[in-house]
Design brief:
Layout (H helix, E strand, L loop, with lengths): L3 H21 L7 H16 L10 H5 L8 H6 L11 H22 L11 H23 L1
Helix pairs in contact: 1-6, 2-6, 5-6
Length: 144
């Protein structure tokens, strides 16, 4: 099974190849917000929200003191089972982390008005970046 660094290298090489392909073919002309959304989602999906969060992996340790928040996830899911499903595993991790983020937002920032008007396209592109990174992780695991 590939190690953490091999997963990272594979993910970033494939991501750069995809970006280069679309850029060279002039098929997509996204704005900077969309590029940032997918890149940030891909980075988060590669470094923090990986299928290996259910083990003592580097991604799990990367959460630092906040890794305690990942314990329920780690206890619930067994490695290389549902967490390594390309779509289901990614959606469960996104949902789990979204609940944590929304809980903190509600507790800490409920009374603050940000005035931000974010298009729903950007969160969807962000989530697609996470799913893409997770899919490449699972694909590499299945190859080796």
């Amino acid at each position: 099974m590939p190690g953490y660094n091999r997963h990272r290298l594979f993910n970033y090489i494939i991501f750069i190849a995809i970006v280069f392909f679309f850029y060279s073919e002039n098929t997509v002309h996204p704005d900077i917000g969309r590029i940032l959304a997918i890149s940030l989602g891909f980075y988060i999906g590669t470094e923090f929200v990986t299928p290996d969060l259910d083990t003592n992996s580097t991604a799990y340790k990367r959460w630092g003191n906040l890794k305690i928040l990942m314990l329920p996830y780690k206890w619930t899911f067994k490695h290389r089972q549902s967490s390594h499903n390309i779509l289901y595993g990614a959606f469960v991790r996104i949902l789990y982390i979204s609940i944590i983020i929304l809980a903190f937002y509600y507790i800490i920032f409920k009374s603050l008005s940000t005035g931000l008007d974010i298009s729903p396209v950007y969160p969807i592109i962000f989530i697609f970046g996470i799913i893409l990174a997770n899919a490449l992780h699972v694909l590499l695991d299945n190859i080796f």
